[in-house]
C-alpha cells in the first residue's frame, strides 16, 4: 500500500500550477507512479483570457451598418457582436497557432486597411508542426483583424473580416 495522501497530491498539483505560471507555459502534463496499481495523472492547462463585451456597449459604426428600425434590438445587437456571423468573416479551417508573418520580425501578411486578392496568403496557422498558409477567400479590404500573432485558435473561430 502506498503512503501518499490527498494533501500531498494537492500540494503536488499546486506546485505544478506554480511551475506553469513561473515558466510562462500554457500546458503541463505529468504522471506520478506510486506503486504497481497506484498512480496520479495530472494535466494543468492555462486558459487564454477571454474578453467579452456587454450588449449595451455601443460598437463603432465603421464595423457594421445600422440595423433597420423594424428589427428587434436584442437580435440586431447579438448579430453585430458576433464577428463569425459577418458576411466577410474569414474563419479558421483548423485548430492551431496563428502567425501574422512568415517569420518572427518579418512584415505581416496583412494590416487593417490593406487590399487583398483572392488566394493571397493572409496568415499562417501552425498545426502539428506544419505551417498552413491561409488564403483570402475573396478580394477586398481588410476591415478587422480579430486574432493576435502567436494566439491559439479553434476550428471555425473568426480570424479577420474582408469587405
UniProtKB/TrEMBL annotation:
A Pfam cross-reference name: Biotin_lipoyl
One MF annotation (Gene Ontology) recorded for this entry: acetyl-CoA carboxylase activity
GO biological process: fatty acid biosynthetic process
Domain Lipoyl-binding: residue ranges: 87-163
CC annotations in GO: acetyl-CoA carboxylase complex
Keywords of this entry: Biotin, Fatty acid biosynthesis, Fatty acid metabolism, Lipid biosynthesis, Lipid metabolism
Function: This protein is a component of the acetyl coenzyme A carboxylase complex; first, biotin carboxylase catalyzes the carboxylation of the carrier protein and then the transcarboxylase transfers the carboxyl group to form malonyl-CoA.
Designated name of the protein: Biotin carboxyl carrier protein of acetyl-CoA carboxylase
Upper lineage: Bacteria, Pseudomonadati, Pseudomonadota, Alphaproteobacteria, Rhodobacterales
Amino acid at each position: 500500500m502506498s503512503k501518499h495522501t490527498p494533501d500531498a497530491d494537492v500540494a503536488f498539483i499546486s506546485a505544478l500550477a506554480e511551475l506553469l505560471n513561473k515558466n510562462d507555459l500554457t500546458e503541463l502534463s505529468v504522471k506520478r507512479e506510486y506503486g504497481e496499481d497506484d498512480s496520479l495523472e495530472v494535466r494543468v492547462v492555462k486558459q487564454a483570457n477571454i474578453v467579452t463585451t456587454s450588449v449595451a456597449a455601443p460598437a463603432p459604426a465603421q464595423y457594421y451598418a445600422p440595423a433597420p428600425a423594424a428589427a428587434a434590438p436584442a437580435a440586431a445587437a447579438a448579430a453585430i457582436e458576433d464577428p463569425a456571423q459577418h458576411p466577410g468573416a474569414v474563419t479558421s479551417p483548423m485548430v492551431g497557432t496563428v502567425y501574422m508573418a512568415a517569420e518572427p520580425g518579418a512584415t505581416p501578411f496583412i494590416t487593417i486597411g490593406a487590399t487583398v486578392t483572392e488566394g493571397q496568403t493572409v496568415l499562417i496557422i501552425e498545426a502539428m508542426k506544419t505551417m498552413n498558409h491561409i488564403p483570402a477567400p475573396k478580394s477586398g479590404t481588410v476591415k478587422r483583424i480579430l486574432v493576435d500573432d502567436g494566439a491559439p485558435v479553434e476550428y471555425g473561430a473568426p480570424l479577420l473580416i474582408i469587405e
